[in-house]
Every structure is written in structure tokens, then in C-alpha cells.
Amino acid sequence: MARAGEAWRHRAEYGAVLVVRAMVRLVPWRLAMRVGAGLGAAFYALDAGHRRLTIANLAAAFPQRPPAEHEAIARGVFGHFGQLLVEILRFGGRTPAQVLEAVEFEGEEHVLQAMERGKGLLCVTGHFGFWELHALAHGARFGHGSLVARPLDNPFLHKLLEDIRTSTGNTVIYRHRGLRRILSALAENRTVAMLIDQHIHNADAVTVQFFDRPAATTSAVAALALRTGAAIIPVFALPLGGGRYRLIYEHPVELPPEDCEDPVRELTQRCTDVLEMYVRRYPERWLWMHRRWRDDGQPAVSGMFPPAGGGEAVPDE
């Protein structure tokens, strides 16, 4: 009975997403963004658990700001992720050439320089801005790349998202037994994109400071870079207005000195510092409703907002 109920829920969720997709592909961009903001506002109103968690995380990260500002940012966070959903669905129907028409690149010379070294490239980011659109445009601009992700619980939405992610030539590497595929991609001088902002609770985690709080973080990016010599470039996607986006490639993250006592942790901290810099600049564009810090006594959250679906630690094989 439970499985039947779950299957019904999956189909209902899928049907709702298809309705939204049909709607936002027919209307002008401004109206589509209003739809996305409206979806976010609905989640903010109905999902009390994630609303409270978002505000609590913002209060801990920005203690000098008043509660009213924390709430205003929280509303912006939910609105942003509603708009992100809309843009993923809209971009999913575009050709690679049409994707490139909607973006501009900043710092792409860092990618070209990394490719010249022949050791592959690790693009790192978080659930920040329009990261899914960045991956689509990167594949269209630089060719075949790989995204490290975990499967979605809903098989229908999983297939829909995979089709979108691979529409510009990328492939998806799923976490389970994905290490060999990642190493193969880097050995072939390709890009591997990974997210570094989710709580990791296995033995591969390292603890770094994120907003002056200890945060268990994947060590995979640092370990892969130190093992293969691949460059690490933090990447971010920000809106320009009118349905256009700026895709930013930061300078490569420098490796720790040879005498560093814990190079994996130090390199992970350096990557995290770049992400924090962007989140501080644009706090409404990061996933504050995720339980990033697990040592704060906050209760587990259940509710309408789905869990993050990006790349996490890759287990050893």
C-alpha cells in the first residue's frame, strides 16, 4: 500500500512539473519569472519546517543583521529557487546554440589554460545561483563534460532532469561507484563538475569553517586534485536580467605548500572560502534551507521543499 501511495505521489509530482514546464515555455520571460517567484512564495508559506530552518541559518550566519532582514532574505531564497526551477525547465527545451545565446562568459581563459595542461579540470560550486544553467552552457561551449550527482527519489523527475543535464553533451556520473568514471574523465582531459556545500556524514568528510561554523564537507575534490594534478576552478552563474546570465570562472584554487600538514583539509577550506565569498555577496541565492551544519541542535526537517540533488562525496572503490 505504501509503495502504491509513493508511486501515485511520484506521478502527481511529475504531472505538476510538466504543467509548469508547458506554462513557462509559452509565456514571456518576465511572466515566467513571476510564476517561479510565486512557486517559491507558496513553498515559503506552506513549508514551515524549512522556512524556520532557513531563517535560523541566516540568523547564525549574519548575527549583526536584524530579524526582519533575515526574514526578507529567506523569502528571497525561496523565490530564487522557484525561479531556478522555471529556468531549468525553460532551458531544457533549447539547443546548445540557443543556450549559448543566453549567456556570457567571464574568466573562460582559466578553463582554456587548465585544458592546455592536459590533466583535466574540476569545476566546483554549490547550490548557488543558477548552477544547473552553468553546466548546460559549459557543455555547449567547451564540449563533453561530466556532472557528479545523486539520483532523485522520483524516477520520473530523475529521467526528466537527466535529459536536461545531458542535452548539451554532458554526461552524469552518479555517486555510487563513480570514482573510476571520474578518474577516467580527468585522464581524458575533460571537465568534472562537483558541488561542495552539502553535509557529509561518512568517513570521507573533512571539517572546515563555513560562515565561522564547523561544516563536514566532501574531501573528494581536494583528494582528486592532489591525486591527478587536475586544476580546481570555482564557478558561479548570476542573472543579468532579461533571461540572460553571466557565467563566472574564478582563478584556479592554489594547492597547499608541500609542507602542509593536512593538504586535503586545507585545499577543501580554500574551495569553501571562495563559495562563502559569493554566498555573502548574494545570500538570497544559496540553499539556506539545507541542514548544512549538524552540530547546532537543530531538529530534522520534513516538509514540501525537496532535498538537494547535487554532487556529494564519491566513495572509494
Question: What would you say this structure looks like, in words?
Answer:
This protein is α/β, with parallel strands linked by helices and 317 residues long. The chain has one domain (2-285). The protein has helices spanning 2-26, 29-46, 48-61, 67-91, 96-101, 108-117, 131-142, 155-165, 179-187, 220-228, 263-281, and strands spanning 103-106, 121-125, 145-149, 171-174, 191-195, 205-209, 214-218, 231-241, 244-249. It has a seven-stranded mixed beta sheet, with helices on both faces. Strands 6-7 form a two-stranded antiparallel sheet. A hairpin with a 2-residue loop joins strand 8 and strand 9 (244-249). The two termini are 36 Å apart.
Low-confidence stretches: 296-313
**Order of helical and strand elements:** HHHHHEHEHEHEHEEEHEEH
Question: Which structural class best describes the helix and strand composition?
Answer: alpha/beta
Task: Please tell me how large the radius of gyration is.
Answer: 19 Å
Estimate nothing, just give the exact number of structural domains.
Answer: 1
Q: What share of residues is helical?
A: 40-55%
The first-to-last residue Cα distance is 36 Å
Largest sheet: 7 strands, mixed
Mean pLDDT: 91
Q: What is the assembly state of the chains in this entry?
A: single chain
Beta-strand percent range: 15-25%
Side-by-side strand order of the widest sheet: 1-9-8-2-5-3-4
Q: How many runs of DSSP E, i.e. beta strands?
A: 9
Global shape: globular
Number of H/I helices:
11
